[in-house]
Model the fold of this input.
Amino acid sequence: MSGQLRFEILGPQRAWHADREIDLGPGKQRAVLAVLLLSAGRPVSTGQIVDAVWPEEPPANGPNVVQKYVAGLRRVLEPDRSPRTPGQVLSLTDAGYLLRVDPEAVDAVRFERGVQAARQRHAAGRTDEALAELTAALDLWQGEPFAGIPAGFFAAARHRLVELRAVALETRVELELASGRHRELIGELVELVAEFPVRERLRHHYMVALYRSGRQAEALAAYGEIDSLLREQYGIDPGPALRELHGRILRADPTLTAGIPEAEWPAPARSAQDVETAAPPTAAPRPGVSAPPPVPPYADLAPPLHSAPGGLPAGPPPGVRAEPARRDPHPLPTWVSTTATVAGASLALLSFGMVTWLAVAPYAVRRRSRRLGLVALGYFLAGSLLAYMINTDDLETEDSAAEAFFGLGLLAVCWLWGAVHVILLNRWVWGRVTGRTVEAQAHEEERRVRREQARNLLHRYPAARQEFAIGRPDLARAFDDGGLIDVNAVPDHVLAALPGLTDAQRRQVAMDRWVRGPYASMEDLASRCPLPLAVTDSLRGVLLFLPPPGTPAGAFGSWAAEQAGPR
Done:
């Protein structure tokens, strides 16, 4: 009868006799069978079964309990066996209980053998056979093994099987990518990355599939996700292979699309020289009609006094369609934000400002705002100081005027202003107060995030400055840097459009750069062209102060140090 038995443990534990499913009985009896299946063909002692099934509280009469469950298994596995006849499928030997079944009857064994066979075929260069073998082996999985069974022995077995499945999945995806099925794999890879978020090999395949499908931005976003995850949860960077792939995608490395039809390749990043030499097609003149003299582009604009260094073209870009503002990808429903505002303001009022920080902190986490985090810390310190003053106050001694004034000031800040602050943190309320819509705020936040991403990209990959024309709104480009301006590279007409400056201040910024050279920092700009503090604060997040192209880093660093010193 053992030749007709089949067992499944790669998912819900089930057993079959021919085409009939067997009822395996209660949970502990199933656990005893699972121990025997993991050692099919090898005897397992009673002590080993007790330790595996009852890892924390073994029964006092463990051997008798195991014998009872073994008898139950014999009844369901060998229903035709007479009570006094020794078991043929599950027998007792001197070394322990032995389950006599063909190893191929257990799906976990078939899975492991299938993975091993696929490795051998892949090593022999038979890729198609290896891919078919892996696919058949992975199809045996129906869910999580040993779900609901106590940890310990089964946790280790589960971890080993899941790890083997993950490696098999990575290998299968790699083989399918090599066969050109990158577009069909993206949907499955999304699920696998969610299931195994920190497996870098899967993330590597996901990024390659996206890039080969012409979705370069999404491939870079996939890298950003695992980079943030590893930094926030484990304090580490992605591995060398993933970092190298990120750099190759940024450079539009042609080897990433080797063997892929050219029509499916993503467009490589345009360099500044490509933009300069590119010219729009012109219509051929009709016979007999003389063509009008060519009009230089943007002839109505004054030529810049200080052209862009390094051979980069000056002047505005050809017409580029502006992308519409994008909303928060995970906006909160109105009733949720309103409830949070009411609850936060009530918390600040009812606690007399003691826990106002608790109402502000969730906004800092949600918006990933360091400034709000510091404000929440300030509320916490002020509330703690106020609580300390109240607890140590001697009611029989009259406080001085300074102490009373200081205490009332803390109370006003934490209590009244804290409640108002929480209300103003609601985007709808803040939009009503400032006259800016929620869409405008979302667009502004999107631009700020893109500027931070572009700065981080420049920090990690300085070559991105030329490849993506970061900080050059005067050039045609596909990369959105959030409106950054490279103050040492843009032509004068871009400086003439800097926000918050008067015409005289704009002319002074351009003239001083032309006469005295590049700016080293925001402080250097503010000292050379006296600007109001409010203006410098608004420009600080927009301007880039990069060395002119071709300037050695050390030379520019010493120059910047000189510029930052007293004049």
